[in-house]
Design a protein that fits this description.
mainly alpha; single chain
Length: 189
Amino acid sequence: MGWVNKVTPWFAVAVLVLAAVWLGFAIYDTLNNYRNASGWGHAGIWAASLAGTVCMGFVCVRVAMPAKRWPSDGAVRVLTTVGFILAGFAAPMIVLRGQYGVGGLIIALSPLLIFYVRIRRPLIDILPAWCGGTWKPDKSKRRPRRGEEVIKHPPRTWDETSGPSPAQAAPTGGRARKKQAKKKWRSGR
């Protein structure tokens, strides 16, 4: 059954490529049939859906070839976010315009459906929470904001002394100093 896990990501890539081709034809058809502002609006929605599909296609390639690690983790996060925004915006607009009916809606929703069915699980550690993952940015690598005061600490090697510590040194004679006790707080003062 291991071959199923190798074939299904490539099948998802093929479905996304076919959806992108269909969306390209929808853009072409819309621009040929409508030469007014409404046509440009339709074409813009189809183009947003096409861009979201292409972004999700690149993320799906990462799932299909995990050993190559292409695109990188950061690129996967960006592509998934952009794909979500564009496909999530375009799908309801396609429903409202109703130009190609249910077929157009299924094609427009295909990147989101494939993401949740096949792409998301292998990338859970890479994706941020808003994309269904568990990745959180490292706060220590954050650049300081403009005007924010930066506290710089000296290296720890500066804290070390060059000779033996005073506690390890042998007493040289005389009476040892008594450690000063803390003053106790008294009530009533």
